[in-house]
Model the fold of this input.
Amino acid sequence: FDHCFWSHDRASEHFASQQAVYEELGAPMLVDAIKGVSSCLLAYGQSSAGKSHSLLGYSDDPGIVPHMVDGLFNDEEEEVREANGQTVRVWVSFLELHN
Done:
């Protein structure tokens, strides 16, 4: 595995917040996406391990995907348009499989 985050106990010194997970995984993917690099994020694990929570989160504790959308459309969009003078196209796919 590439990354493993502990998010079961907020009091733990090893606790990884949604923001910390985004900064480790989502932010670099966003930078690459702005450069035109395709990315894929796979969350795999046991049922109820927190995969959907890590990707989507809740309105008061957003996950990686909402953070990336905010970063792209709220923070970066104007900068990208001004820097390149080009049109930016975004395709996003989300697939959730249950066994």
User: Anything to note?
Assistant: The helical segments are 18-34, 51-55, 64-84. The two ends are 21 Å apart (CA to CA). Residues 80 and 86 are 8 Å apart (CA to CA). The chain has a mean pLDDT of 82.
